Input
Amino acid sequence: MARGVGLARGVAGVTANRGTMAAVRINVPRIISFVIIAIVIAGVVNVYADAGPIERMARARVCERHGSPCKERLGRVLRTPFFHDLDFTVGGRSVTVRCSRQFVFVGDYACALKSP
Output
């Protein structure tokens, strides 16, 4: 008998809520996990993606101070998820260019000469 009464209450509760808006549960740990995974993927892409266009921008930044013909030589390259440092040798002296994204992990790259 108690089993039938409980079942009737459950059915009545479901039909009573059918016309109203049901409460939505937000799974916070799952959302945090997806955000962390997205950040890790963005960092990996920043390090391992093709750096050809970034290197060309850095070379252009070095050569705009020296005019043509610019005979720069690429030495050391440091690639991190946050920036790329490229060391060039121009006319016997070392020049470092730092290229970073507009925002931390996304946006267009911009390069600037790094102060010694």
